[in-house]
Amino acid sequence: MSERLTAGEICTREVAIAFRHTDLVTAARLMREYHVGALVVVDETQGLRTVAGVLTDRDIVISVVAPELQPGNLCVGDVMTARPVTAAEDASVIDVLRSMRAHGVRRIPVVGAQQALIGLVGLDDILEVLAQEFGMLAATIGRGIERERAQRA
């Protein structure tokens, strides 16, 4: 890649969020409504939303469903991954991938100044960028072949 893509450039900016006190059933409904597998859990102070955790569908399955707990008795703060790894909005995509690999996660909240939530970058966002890059690469190869054919005709 000739350009240095950043987390802020490729992240999804419309992020499904929850608060620590959100009940777990409501959180699951939010995931269903927004067709997402994770909610970013935020604390809100003076209009600033900072990342407090991440709640994934896997967290619910492993921590609630498998041990047969009652989800109605729990809130997001009981199940979320607290203090998740985050990426600065100017972090390179390569750095984001390194963090994902090092921490074994597929999604990372992107933060700006004062750790405010900017967006969420997932492997699907990165794959989309890579697919575009591979498409350009394939088109370049195709153009080279066309140019050679035209020169030989």
Topology:
Blueprint: H1 7-10, E1 17-19, H2 24-34, E2 38-45, E3 48-56, H3 57-65, H4 76-79, E4 81-82, E5 87-88, H5 93-103, E6 107-111, E7 117-122, H6 123-152
Parallel strand pairs: 1-2, 5-6
Antiparallel strand pairs: 2-3, 3-4, 6-7
Overview of this protein structure:
Helix content is 45%, strand content 23%. The chain contains 6 helices and 7 strands; from the N terminus they run αβαββααββαββα. The longest helix has 30 residues, at 123-152. 25% of the residues are buried. The mean pLDDT is 90.
The total beta strand count reads: 7
Query: What is the averaged pLDDT score?
Result: 90
Which residue ranges are poorly predicted, with pLDDT under 50 across at least 5 consecutive positions?
none
Q: What percentage of amino acids are in beta strands?
A: 15-25%
Strand order of the largest sheet: 1-2-3-4
The proportion of residues forming helix, as a percent range, comes to 40-55%
* Major beta sheet summary: 4 strands, mixed
What structural category characterises the helix and strand content?
Answer: alpha/beta
- What's the N-to-C terminus distance? 34 Å
- Supply Rg: 20 Å
Number of helices: 6
- What's the order of the H and E elements? HEHEEHHEEHEEH
Q: Assign an overall shape.
A: elongated
